[in-house]
Amino acid sequence: MKNKPGNLVLITLGVYFYFLLFLVVSGFAQSVQLRDRTRYVENKKIMNDICLTLSEIKIYGGMEPANNEEIFCYPFDMAFDNDGNRYILDHKGPYVLVYNKSGDFLYRFGKKGQGPGELSFPWGISIDIENNVYITEWYGGQVLVLSNKGKYIKRIHPKVPCDMPGIKVMNDGKLLGGLSPFPDFIPEENPPFSEPVLVVCSPNGDRLRQFGSLKHFKYKAMTKSGNAVFYTVDADDNIFVTYRFQNRIEKYNANGKLLLHIKRKLNFKEPFKVNQDITYNKNGGVQGSGLPIMNVVSCGIAVDSQNRIWVLTMSRQPQYERFCEVAENEHDYAKLEVFDSDGIMLAEIPVKENIEPYVSCLYINDDHLFILNANTVSVTEYLVGTE
Fold this sequence. Notes:
Blueprint (H helix, E strand, L loop, with lengths): L4 H25 E6 L2 E6 L8 E10 L13 E6 L5 E5 L4 E5 L5 E5 L12 E6 L5 E5 L5 E4 L5 E5 L11 E2 L5 E4 L19 E4 L5 E5 L11 H4 L2 E5 L5 E5 L5 E4 L5 E7 L33 E6 L5 E6 L5 E3 L2 E2 L7 E6 L5 E7 L10 E4 L2 E6 L4 E9 L1
Parallel strand pairs: 2-19
Antiparallel strand pairs: 1-2, 3-28, 4-5, 5-6, 6-7, 8-9, 9-10, 10-11, 12-13, 13-14, 14-15, 16-17, 17-18, 18-19, 20-21, 21-24, 22-23, 24-25, 26-27, 27-28
């Protein structure tokens, strides 16, 4: 039976009504804008709540390691090669511990020193498509390139600010650097901080491009630390960034074009506070109790095989015993936030561990998620699933 014109009008109005209803309901969940081909998303609540599960598989290191070869002093960063082997950089060892995809210990390499293949102040680790290992040194801003067995290959001196110690190797061999997530304050009388948030260099270290807009704070001394980032790269060399002290998650393409900007609702205020006036020693360094206190927002970002964006975010601000060291009795102050490739929040998962918010804590390889915990000198591996 053919629809009469009146019926068609009613059907059209009904579809239109439900479409408008969908837009209104969606508006309560998030605000989405498109400006200059960049998608800006503000998540007010979880729109598509999916039940993601984390099943613990293994704990690497810890207070009672399996043997002396697996002792962690201060796990600081982590990377994976093409075979899924895990490389855990120990900052204080200093050395790299290597495990296979099943979590079995294989070997370790590296020792303290300044000779070929030796480490003095390692800050970051990354692995290229040929399974060569890149270890960034804080002092001097140099990158040590080793084989996957630790054999010395070369040193690179990337032309990036010394405040970018955690170089990542992109799939095309270029080097990506971002502002250090560790607190560092510039004397107020100095010129305003103007270095970029992110820099891409050639494989030889020549600067190619820089991008990422700085947020300027009331106190110039805070601009550098206030724009500190964690970042990762996907298989297409898209760059994903989360800011330690800002409600700001971003995605750039390999050329530095901003594609996605995400905000979400926080359970605390983003700004920092100053207990008293900032004071400086004769060498220009910030000293003592005048340090500004900034609320940590996030401490890690990763992308899974389904292009979902995972961010380790603070659900509240913990109490600290000393600078950067969370009080021993503090727990349940962090969570995993999961976003789809368009920036829509899909899920939140509580994190029970008392992580250290000043060290990169989150990594993903295939469907395995890793939380690095400097407080318990361990790395916990989970299998990601759904119910």
